[in-house]
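Repro:
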Amino acid sequence: MSNRVQRQLQVSLTIILFLNCASVYAQEWYLRFGLGFERATDSVFMDVDCEISDPTPLYGCGTGGDGAPLRSVGGYGTFPSLEVGVGYFIKPTLRLEALLEYSPKLAFRGSANYLSPTTRQSVEADLSKFTGMVALYSDLPKLGIMNSKPVHPFVGAGIGAVRTKISETHMTFPITTTIVPGHSRTDFAWMISAGVATEFEENTTLELAWRYTDFGEVRTGSGTGQVIWRDGSREPRILNLPPTRARLRSHGVRVSMRRTF
């Protein structure tokens, strides 16, 4: 056999091998789209450092009208999240996924405790968050656990980063309104998840999952705030404020469609 024929044969075999491998690996990738409904646990806003004197802390280190440290306590209610993920089956039992998640609006509604509990001192702010994570999922039936066709349980965990943005905070008292500046912040995030999957059609899987996520801290801005007398009897009082902080954690359900290609 001539060298030319050998080279042509080698090239042909290489092309066939490449196409076969590409076909095999293609079946191990997937794209997932999901819609989630989350409920955040109650958040407590307090000063990052209540002992500094310049700028002046919003709350300080004292005790409020309810006997607790000065703070604002409230919740975000239920809010939607949009999610997209790209994954790869490392093994038949494990899949690795990069996911992006966006929650356009979280509405914080709570109360401060400067005054007695029966006095109006409501606190309101809007938030949004954008999260990127790398997650690892294990399909339990492929491990010989909970093999209950056509429903396939799975568990997962992930780590990543979250970008939160909080609007101006409005604190409404009987006569005045205090405005605290907003802020954007990036923090570490992690999650755990458990759910079930069922094959909807060939190469298409429907997922229903529960997830708990820790989004780190939300922080209000430092800088200029103000106290406004709503009846206009006095000029606004300008405040030089340091940041306040609160933990943001949530749990909820997600419905996703996963397409293998």
